[in-house]
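User: I've been trying to design a sequence by hand for this structure and keep getting stuck. Would you show me what you'd pick, starting by listing the structure so we're on the same page?

Assistant: Good idea, let's start from the same input. This is the structure you sent:
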């Protein structure tokens, strides 16, 4: 199999699976329990928090573990809205965020909030100037992702933080860094965002674990999940020790080799763009600079057919976020692409283990598809 859909989820290394098994079988206590196996589980959670916090560039107590990137995003939007509710009821976000940000924003609209959805340009980019222009005195939250999951566009979070400061805005700045963590290097303590969402399974951890960074300007976050008061009262629910052990191990593995892995991915991505764009009928979509995600279009050839055809040959790519399950993505809609370009969009996302020969196979299969099928009229 040739796996070119790392933005959907990443393969789980054996070391990660071993760490998960170890936590399940030998460190099975409840971290809240007062006897040795409980204490052992508690110290496991503390070690995992220290590992992930160190990789994010923050203090351990600034990190809340969650069940996934989606929960982190929902938590961020809700807590910023709660914190800012007396100052105003306006949010600035982009039309190309993941649904995990867009849907809680839509819920808030139903509760009387106003949301400004910034549109990207044709290449998928959003500027800090656009954000600055959209700010209002009553803006409580600005939520802009670090790396778009469909185009690979990297958004200027540091510049946006500076623009908020220059405008004297009290709004909290959230960034969904699910596709950026350990792919586009940043440190939480210098990025300028107050809230940063990450997810384990994009890095080789098991599905079902994520984290939210809470910066200094976040005060008494109102939990999304209220209950037994775990995570310092910020997120109740018995800690998912096995997932956390896998998350920490995956982070450790990625970090150990980060410079070489990123350089390798950037080289494979450059090779892929050269090979794919040399195929007649293939066009670039967006101008994403991330080392691991880019989009192209086999113009006029419906992507659902291409994906099925390639899948049957063991090549896994997608038309965009796995969450869309075949529906046209709101990201490509927002970019206002011509109809035939949009119809043929394909997202390629690579990982440290992707080889140039995987790209050769993809290029050959795409050519073959183009030559053996009729395009849409
Ligand atoms: N945000 C972005 C940018 C994503 O790409 C994803 C997953 O595809 C998520 C959030 C949701 O993360 P999770 O699958 O961990 O809920």
């Amino acid at each position: 199999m040739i796996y070119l859909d790392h933005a959907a989820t990443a393969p789980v290394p054996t070391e990660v699976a071993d760490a998960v098994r170890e936590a399940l079988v030998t460190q099975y206590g409840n971290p809240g329990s007062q006897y040795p196996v409980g204490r052992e589980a508690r110290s496991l959670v503390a070690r995992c928090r220290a590992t992930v916090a160190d990789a994010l560039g923050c203090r351990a107590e600034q990190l809340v573990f969650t069940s996934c990137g989606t929960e982190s995003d929902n938590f961020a939007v809700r807590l910023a809205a709660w914190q800012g509710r007396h100052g105003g009821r306006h949010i600035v976000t982009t039309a190309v965020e993941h649904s995990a940000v867009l849907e809680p924003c839509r819920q808030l609209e139903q509760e009387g909030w106003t949301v400004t959805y910034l549109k990207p340009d044709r290449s998928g980019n959003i500027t800090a100037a656009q954000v600055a222009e959209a700010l209002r005195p009553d803006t409580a939250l600005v939520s802009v992702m670090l790396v778009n999951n469909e185009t690979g566009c990297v958004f200027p979070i540091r510049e946006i933080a500076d623009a908020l400061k220059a405008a004297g805005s009290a709004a909290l700045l959230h960034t969904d860094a699910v596709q950026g963590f350990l792919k586009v290097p940043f440190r939480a303590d210098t990025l300028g965002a107050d809230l940063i969402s990450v997810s384990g399974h994009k890095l080789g951890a098991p599905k079902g674990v994520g984290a939210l960074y809470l910066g200094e300007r976040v005060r008494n976050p109102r939990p999304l999940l209220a209950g037994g008061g775990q995570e310092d009262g910020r997120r109740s629910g018995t800690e998912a020790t096995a997932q956390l052990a896998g998350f920490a191990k995956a982070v450790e593995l990625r970090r150990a080799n980060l410079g070489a892995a990123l350089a390798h991915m950037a080289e494979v991505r450059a090779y892929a763009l050269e090979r794919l764009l040399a195929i007649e009928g293939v066009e670039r979509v967006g101008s994403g600079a991330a080392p691991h995600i880019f989009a192209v279009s086999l113009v006029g050839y419906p992507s659902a057919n291409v994906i099925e055809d390639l899948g049957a040959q063991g090549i896994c790519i997608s038309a965009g976020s796995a969450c869309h399950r075949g529906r046209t993505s709101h990201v490509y809609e927002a970019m206002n692409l011509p109809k035939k370009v949009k119809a043929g969009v394909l997202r390629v996302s690579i990982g440290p283990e992707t080889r140039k020969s995987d790209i050769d196979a993809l290029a050959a299969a795409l050519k073959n598809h183009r030559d053996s099928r009729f395009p849409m009229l």
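That's my pick for every position. To get oriented when you compare it with your attempt: The mean pLDDT is 96. Residues 68-70, 73, 98, 100, 145, 149, 176, 178-179, 199, 201, 210, 321 surround pyridoxal-5'-phosphate (CB under 6 Å).
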